[in-house]
Structure formats: C-alpha cells, structure tokens
TrEMBL record:
Organism name: Paenibacillus lycopersici
Gene label: deoC
InterPro entries for the chain: Aldolase_TIM, DeoC, DeoC/FbaB/LacD_aldolase, DeoC_typeI
Signal sequence coordinates: none
Descriptive protein name: Deoxyribose-phosphate aldolase
Function, in words: Catalyzes a reversible aldol reaction between acetaldehyde and D-glyceraldehyde 3-phosphate to generate 2-deoxy-D-ribose 5-phosphate.
Length: 227
C-alpha cells in the first residue's frame, strides 16, 4: 500500500455521506457540489434525496449511493426490495443495504442470504450492492459468517457500519472482512472515520471504499466530526 496516497486517487475512495435525519435541501446541494469539486466516488444519502442528487450530479462522474433497510436492517425483504426498486428509478447507482442482524444472531442464515440475494436481484446489474454488517453488534465469528453469506448472495461489497450503531470502522475489522471475502469483493469502511491517518490505515488493511461525512476535511489533511 502506498502511504503517500492522496489527491484524486484518495478522493476516489470516498462515499461523501450525509444521513442525518434533519438534513435539508441546502445540505444536499452542498454535499453534491463538494463531491463534484473533489471527485468523490459517490454521495451517500437517504432515499428521499436520491432524485435531487441524481439531477445535480448528472454527467459529473459522481455516483449516488442510498441506504436500504436503514438503519436497523429489520425490515421485511419485500420492503427492502421495494425500496431498492424505487431508489433505482430515482437514479441511485449504488445500494447500501443493512443486514438483518437479528436473523443472523438467531441462526436464520438462509433467511439472511435470501434477503441479500433478493436485493441483489432487484439491483438487476444497474447498481452495486454493499451490505452493512453493523460490526459493533457482532462477534468475530458472526462477522466472518455474514461476509460469507454476502459473498454467496452476490453482493459487491461488505460494509462495516451504519454510523448509527455502536462502534465503527477499525483496522482489525477491515482485515477480518477482507480475509473473509477474499480479493474479489469490495470492503467499505464506515463509521467514525475522521482523519487521513485512519483512512490510510484502513486502505492498507483492505478497504476499497470509505464512507465518511468528513470527507472534505480528510482529503485536505484535517480532522472532521460526524459519521
């Protein structure tokens, strides 16, 4: 890993994130402008704002990520699929769905896999699928099991956290997830990522995408707050 990673190459790792429930239109406008200015991979926003962001980012090369089953993951598969189809119709290019943690912990592994697979099928090749594991609620064994399920179900990425649960992205968890999924899948580090040193350590451990609300401060070498 090149520890001097910076500039456009660094910015391309980021899903510039704004998921606060109180976020208003002017906040989304600012988020999209920052994403275009810095060349972030995507903006990551709540579903209501997907159409607005898609319109503002059209032709920019910046994608639109939205969240499904957020933040608990306990919605029915039917609802998650409906959310996904609606998001795609509004212009989403990447889907971050929350794993059904309760089903995983109940040993209902087939149900968890069906849930992920159904959302992947709803993506229909039109959007990448990232699955949020909420690692702060899981044992290491459960994290590895969840990664294996996501890989079998055809997900494109596994992701650490919603930012609304306990804990966040750690080098240890990124390394565990990378080992579990192998080199074929993406691994997204999110939750409490606030400075450049941490980002570089997470990338060195195997992260291929970073979710952060402090993206601008991070790529400028500063320290931010928030998701």
């Amino acid at each position: 890993m090149n520890q001097e990673l910076g500039g456009a190459a660094l910015a391309a790792y980021f899903d510039h994130t704004l998921l606060k429930p109180e976020s208003a239109e002017q906040d989304i406008v600012k988020l999209c402008a920052e994403a275009k200015e810095h060349g972030f991979a995507t903006v990551c926003i709540n579903p209501y704002w997907v159409a607005e962001a898609s319109r503002r980012l059209q032709g920019s090369g910046v994608g639109v990520t939205t969240v499904i089953g957020f933040p608990l993951g306990a919605n029915s598969t039917f609802v998650k699929v409906a959310e996904t189809r609606d998001a795609l119709a509004s212009g989403a290019t990447e889907i971050d769905m929350v794993l059904n943690v309760g089903a995983l912990k109940s040993g209902r592994l087939d149900a968890v896999e069906r849930d992920v697979r159904a959302v992947k099928e709803a993506c229909g090749g039109r959007a990448l699928l990232k699955v949020i594991l909420e690692v702060g609620l899981l044992t290491d064994e459960e994290k590895a099991t969840a990664c294996a399920i996501c890989k079998r179900a055809g997900a494109d990425y596994v992701k650490t956290s919603t930012g609304f649960g306990p804990g966040g992205a750690t080098v240890k968890d990124i390394a565990l997830m990378r080992e579990a999924v192998g080199p074929e899948m993406g691994v997204k580090a999110s939750g409490g990522v606030r400075d450049l040193e941490t980002v570089r350590a997470l990338i060195a451990a195997g992260a291929t995408r970073i979710g952060a609300s402090a993206s601008v401060k991070i790529v400028n070498g500063g320290t931010g707050e928030g998701y």
